[in-house]
Amino acid sequence: MRVGTYNVRGLKDSVPALVRVITAMRADVLCVQEAPRFLYWRGRRQALAEAAGMRVAAGGRLGGVSIYVGPRARVVHAEHHVLKIFLGLEIRGVAIAVVELEGVRLAVASIHLDLSPAARFHHAVEALGRLEKAAARFGAVPVVCGDVNEQSDAPTWRYLAGRLADAYAWAPRGDGMTFTAREPRKRIDGVFTGTGVRVAACGGVGAAREDLVAATDHLPVVAELIGPGTGHAPATVS
């Protein structure tokens, strides 16, 4: 099961390059940040998903987060929530999709956290709380993917990695850096997984460098997850 995250910067860059990168990800579930939010936003999200062989499973306009799924994923449930609004800061949201893959149910959340540390932490707690409710309701493994806007030694990342598991830390592939796409020196995008799946690998995508640079200002992350009884993986999340 391949679960990924990608900040697409509102499709402000090369959309053909973006489609090629998303296609190279081969994700069964893709969490998108900075999805189109304004004119024709639904159609633009759908067109991007379809061009990459996927479909839109969840996400509202406010917050700019969305979830795409590939043909192997069956969508069981979808929801979207606007997170607490802080005066003067950008509106944030969380998209949640419960999907079935390889006989395993995953409750996946797409988040894009704020530049303000206080808002960032509050929204992480709020989003994870909503995800955990959906996961419990549908008997699914919680997975959070997104642009955290801070690195792994900062409070919000440590909170997420304390409640779930930082997939890259369990089974790293590559150097893990995601920002900027042109000169990647920070790991601010991640996949966090709950109990019930194993992490086979997590890291970057084997797309052409020119496409990665042209598509958006972030690099994508993909985690390969294995459910119980479906094979061996080098790391077990528990």
UniProtKB/TrEMBL annotation:
Keywords: Endonuclease, Exonuclease, Hydrolase, Nuclease. The keyword Phosphoprotein does not apply. Residues 4-218 form the Endonuclease/exonuclease/phosphatase domain. The keyword Nuclease applies. InterPro entries: Endo/exonu/phosph_ase_sf, Endo/exonuclease/phosphatase. One of its GO terms (molecular function) is endonuclease activity. Pfam families: Exo_endo_phos (PF03372). This is Endonuclease/exonuclease/phosphatase family metal-dependent hydrolase. It comes from Nonomuraea endophytica. The lineage of its organism: Bacteria, Bacillati, Actinomycetota, Actinomycetes, Streptosporangiales.
